Amino acid sequence: MDSVRMHFDDGADSALVRQAAREVLAGWEAAHVADDALTVITELIHNVIKHTDTGGRLDLTRQADAILIEVFDGSTQPPRRFEPDSHRIGGRGLLIVDAMARDWGTQAIPHGRPGKVVWAEIPLDQSA
After folding, report:
1. What DSSP assignment string belongs to 69-106?
2. How far apart are alpha carbons 91 and 58 in whole angstroms?
3. In this structure, are residues 21 and 36 in contact, taking their beta carbons and an 8 Å threshold?
4. Most buried in the list 11, 45, 76, 77, measured by CB within 10 Å?
């Protein structure tokens, strides 16, 4: 299992994080899932940038059958998944994550530190 950790601040240019993640995925011979993984990464990072002032950390892990995406931040507020609403601008990020990921969720950061991690799994076998 391979892992990579990338920190970003609240003023981060997510394009730089996405480019680094794309290179990692290519190195793991997982370029075929890069579009889905990068879309999920973008949505989760934008949530951190928009809703916290702490910045965060992106961890990518290549598992046997999936890419695990974990985005950590210092907020204890869980992300909110909104139902589609044609009258609301934005608020569709977790709907996109839900549609693209095999599974996703959130949990408090362990060991008494404030914050949470939002994670998503992108299957390596896209036919599944």
Report:
1. EEEEES--SPP-PPPP-TTSSS--HHHHHHHH-SEEEE
2. 21
3. no
4. 45
Which pLDDT score is estimated for 114? Answer: 85
**Domain limits at 114?**
2-123
DSSP assigned state of 71: E
Query: Which pLDDT score, from 0 to 100, does residue 61 have?
Result: 97
Among residues 119, 104, 38, the alpha carbon closest in space to that of 73 is found at: 119
The token pair that represents 88 in the structure block: 């609301």
Q: What is the pTM of this model?
A: 0.88
Residue 35's contacts (CB-CB under 8 Å, 6 or more residues apart) are none
Q: For 13-45, how does the pLDDT look when each residue is reduced to its tens digit (9 = 90+)?
A: 778 889 999 999 999 999 999 999 999 999 999
CATH of the domain at 96: 3.30.565.10
Q: Could you read off the pLDDT of 63-88 as tens digits, one per residue?
A: 999 999 999 999 988 887 767 666 66
- Contact indicator for 103, 96 with CB cutoff of 8 Å: no
CA pair distance 31, 34, nearest whole angstrom = 5
Q: How many domains does the chain have?
A: 1
